[in-house]
């Protein structure tokens, strides 16, 4: 897969007039590709979405990153989720919970140190996520 689809997805996420169904379909296509080589770019775009306060982009990119990166990406997703953008975060929260359930031991190992983060929003969000460890 080329980076062209990621570029197109980012353009669509930045364009609030972009077709929602097309945007979701493209995100799903990228997630289904299994191409972990796309993660650095997607992660940078997630950080930009949070900085730009784009909750829509955060939700969709979080889902793609979760699909491609798995439980190892929990710290990134929890940090992104800890930023209050005024949305309900249903999709991102579900991704985090699914990753915790997918590998509870890894989730515990990755999230426990985050409960002592200097940023209380991050610490609280990590604590929240740990509640889903079976």
What's the SSE blueprint?
Elements: H1 4-14, H2 20-33, H3 39-51, H4 55-69, H5 74-81, H6 90-102, H7 104-111, H8 120-130
Structure commentary:
The protein is mainly alpha-helical. It is built from eight helices and no strands. It has helices at 4-14, 20-33, 39-51, 55-69, 74-81, 90-102, 104-111, 120-130.
Summarize the structure.
This protein has 8 helices and no strands. By secondary structure, the chain is mainly α.
Keywords:
mainly alpha
User: What's the count of strands?
Assistant: 0
β content, as a range? Answer: under 5%
Gyration radius, rounded:
14 Å
Which class best fits the helix and strand makeup? Answer: mainly alpha
Number of helices: 8
Mean pLDDT across all residues, rounded?
Answer: 95
The percentage helix is 55-70%
CA-to-CA gap between the ends? Answer: 36 Å
Largest sheet: none
Question: Which overall shape is indicated by the principal axes computed on the Cα atoms?
Answer: globular
- The SSE string, one letter per element, is HHHHHHHH
Unreliable residue stretches: none
What oligomeric assembly is this protein in?
single chain
């Amino acid at each position: 897969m080329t980076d062209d689809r990621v570029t197109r997805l980012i353009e669509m996420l930045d364009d609030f007039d972009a077709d929602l169904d097309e945007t979701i379909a493209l995100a799903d296509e990228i997630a289904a590709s299994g191409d972990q080589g796309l993660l650095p770019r997607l992660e940078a775009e997630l950080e930009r979405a949070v900085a730009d306060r784009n909750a829509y982009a955060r939700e969709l990119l979080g889902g793609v990153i979760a699909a491609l990166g798995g439980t190892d990406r929990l710290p990134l997703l929890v940090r992104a989720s800890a930023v209050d953008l005024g949305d309900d975060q249903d999709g991102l929260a579900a991704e985090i919970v699914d990753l915790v359930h997918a590998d509870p031991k890894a989730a515990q190992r990755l999230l426990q140190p985050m409960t002592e983060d200097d940023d209380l929003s991050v610490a609280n969000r990590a604590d929240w996520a740990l509640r889903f460890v079976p």
